[in-house]
Amino acid sequence: MRRSISSKAKSFLHRNLLERGNPGTSPSFSICDFCFSRRRAYSGGGSDYRDILRNGLRCMKLDDSLELFFHMVQCRPLPSIADFSRLLSAISKMKKYDVVIYLWEQMQMLGIPHNLYTCNILLNCFCRCSRLSLALSFLGKMMKLGHKPSIVTFGSLVNGFCRGDRIHDALSMFDRMVETGYKPNVVIYNTLIDGLCKSKQVNHALDLLNQMEKDGVVPDVVTYNSLISGLCNSRRWSDAIQMVRYMSKTDIDPDVFTFNALIDACVKEGNFSEAEELYEEMTRRSLDPDIVTYSLLINGLCMYSRLDEAEQMFEFMVSKGCFPDVVTYSILINGFCKSKKVEHGMRLFCEMSQRGVVRNTVTYTILIQGYCRVGKLNVAEEIFKGMVFSGVLPNIITYNVLLHGLCDSGKIEKALVILEDMQKSGMSADIVTYNIIIRGMCKVGEVADAWDLYCSLDHKGLMPDIWTYTTMMLGLYKKGLRREADALFRKMKEDGILPNGCYV
């Protein structure tokens, strides 16, 4: 029996390593360690597995859960399906959905029966892994085996479709559920309303709120938060405020998420004084701001160049036991870099590693851009090298930022080397990249090279935009090639690109 598990684990591992490309962090790697290692003493000691299932699942780690599963399948008689279901549910709550699918396959091979609860766990895992075709196929199999879908079954499918940006399919599943006599609960309504809001269909979401209330399903704070967030993202500020008032009338108090959505909208709309008032309202209501609240406020302060206050807010959140993450750090570093206070940004950048906060591509890109802006290209290049050395992959924005800095400083040859390295890494340059290079070439008088690069764009599958044409025309004019520039202007209009007031 152990051989069959190990054999299955090998094929599962091979498949997942190919798909994931990161064996060190994949949940499947833990399965491999578990299945291929020598049998260790069961960590539960002499404890009965039932005691573990009753009392020890909440704090159990994945490896221990896998050992418990192996221990259970060795027991005779086999544990009940209810016991296996508890374990699968616990692993699912760890968000190790592919592990649950794998263990369910092992149970099938061992002839362990299943019930509706177990089937719902598996179907939910398919949905969470974005394997919706398998989820639908499994739904059909469930019904053939005599398991009538429950409200939980439909809820998982609706959630899966919404997460996969298939809102039309989610609505169809909802209608099918209602037509077959099921009454949607608040969770399913909330899932659909949130999905509609995220797909910019706020009016449809508001209609669903009305239907929900007509059907006697009472909206909760999650319902209203989704709608408020959707209204804010649609720039319907007054409607969002009305929704807050409406929810208060129904004796549902706004929570931190509600205030975060409103503060975010205020910051984006440039109404920071209103954001500050909302923050004060939170404290009056004894609501503790979270990391999102502080990050939004710090971002707003940075946008208005109130950097001293932003730093004070940063220190205040730490004093309250709310420790900044990579997003918070990146926001404040960006604020300093935009104000050309790159040394302050670098201090925070170094502080991140001291506090165990892992820098990401955005953090590095912000700092590289900051040093490029103040003309310290050597430092920017060193940060870029350190980024690659640390295993943080640059994206197209990172490359474009560095190329822009190099070209602005007239370092065209070095920029072309970076461009070549970028392409060797498998990343394709976009029109912004080539606009930067063309502009840099024109700036140092290499108009012929810029023209050659412009002429190659069609071959590269890229369409020139207004900036490409404007840059190239200015370069030609500066070289006294007025006729060629006028011809390019005519071609720009033929391509349907209308001239505007942009300049380079």
User: Average pLDDT, to the nearest integer?
Assistant: 87
- Poorly predicted runs: 1-14, 20-47
User: Which sequence of SSEs, written as H and E, runs from N to C?
Assistant: HHHHHHHHHHHHHHHHHHHHHHHHHHHH
Tally of alpha and pi helices: 28
The CA-CA distance between the termini, in Å, is 71 Å
Structural class: mainly alpha
Radius of gyration, CA atoms, in whole angstroms: 29 Å
* Proportion of residues in extended strands: under 5%
Q: Report the strand count.
A: 0
Q: Mind describing the biggest β-sheet? A: none
Silhouette: globular
Report helical residue fraction: over 70%
Keywords: Repeat
InterPro entries: PPR_rpt, TPR-like_helical_dom_sf
Family: Belongs to the PPR family. P subfamily.
PPR repeats: 115-149, 150-184, 185-219, 220-254, 255-289, 290-324, 325-359, 360-394, 395-429, 430-464, 465-499
Could you characterize what this model shows?
The chain has 504 residues and is mainly α. Among the domains are: 1-113, no CATH class; 433-504, Tetratricopeptide repeat domain (Serine Threonine Protein Phosphatase 5, Tetratricopeptide repeat, Alpha Horseshoe), CATH 1.25.40.10. It is built from 28 helices and no strands. The longest helix has 19 residues, at 2-20. Mean pLDDT is 87; it is low at 1-14 and 20-47.
Care to give the gist of this entry?
The chain has 504 residues and is mainly α. The protein has helices at 2-20, 27-36, 49-55, 62-74, 81-93, 97-109, 116-128, 132-144, 151-163, 167-179, 186-198, 202-214, 221-233, 237-249, 256-269, 272-284, 291-303, 307-319, 326-338, 342-354, 361-373, 377-389, 396-408, 412-424, 431-443, 447-455, 466-478, 482-494.
